[in-house]
Amino acid sequence: MLQSTSVSIADAPQLHPGTILVSVAGGVKILRSRNKLDNGWNCADGAGIDDSDAENTGQWTAYTPERLAADLAMATELHGLAGVRELSGGLATWDACSGRRCVLPRIAKLVH
Fold first, then answer.
1. How many other C-beta atoms are found inside a 10 Å radius of the C-beta of residue 16?
2. Are 8 and 52 in contact (CB under 8 A)?
3. Directed axis angle between helix 104-111 and helix 65-81, to 10°?
4. Are 80 and 86 in contact (CB under 8 A)?
5. Is the CA virtual torsion 1, 49, 12, 59 positive or negative?
6. What is the pLDDT of residue 72?
7. What is the rounded distance in angstroms from the CA atom of residue 28 to the CA atom of residue 92?
8. Per-residue pLDDT, 108
9. What is the pTM of this model?
10. Coil, strand, or helix at residue 13?
11. Cα(54)–Cα(84) distance, rounded to whole angstroms?
């Protein structure tokens, strides 16, 4: 069950124990529990974070463990495709179908 928090921004993610925050610089915070003052979170690393910081979507992206695992798996697969011959040339400049055989159907096959 999700714990409700006071969110000042209407579209801010719902934060709850177990949420993983990843900063734009690659920092990671795992939310453990609400702090005593109920104005922030205790984190697994021992350093708390205020609600205003945790809800700052410009600094942090909130993930469930499952979503983070899925996104990392996808990123790994895409990184592995970086050297595939079909991805070179036109697709990098967004003109994959201009003047030569389209590579987009081949890319779809590689992804699936």
1. 17
2. yes
3. 130
4. no
5. negative
6. 87
7. 31
8. 64
9. 0.61
10. coil
11. 38
Distance separating alpha carbons of residues 31 and 20, to the nearest angstrom:
6
Residues in Cβ contact with 57 at an 8 Å cutoff, skipping those fewer than 6 apart: 9, 12, 13
Q: Which two tokens stand for residue 48?
A: 């708390």
Residue 14 DSSP class: P
- For each of the chain's 112 residues, which pLDDT tens digit applies? 334 333 333 444 589 999 999 998 889 999 999 999 999 999 999 999 999 999 999 999 999 999 999 988 888 887 776 666 555 554 444 454 555 556 666 666 665 5
- Asked if residues 45 and 25 have their Cβ atoms less than 8 Å apart, the reply is no
Nearest Cα neighbor of 51 from 39, 61, 35, 43 is: 39
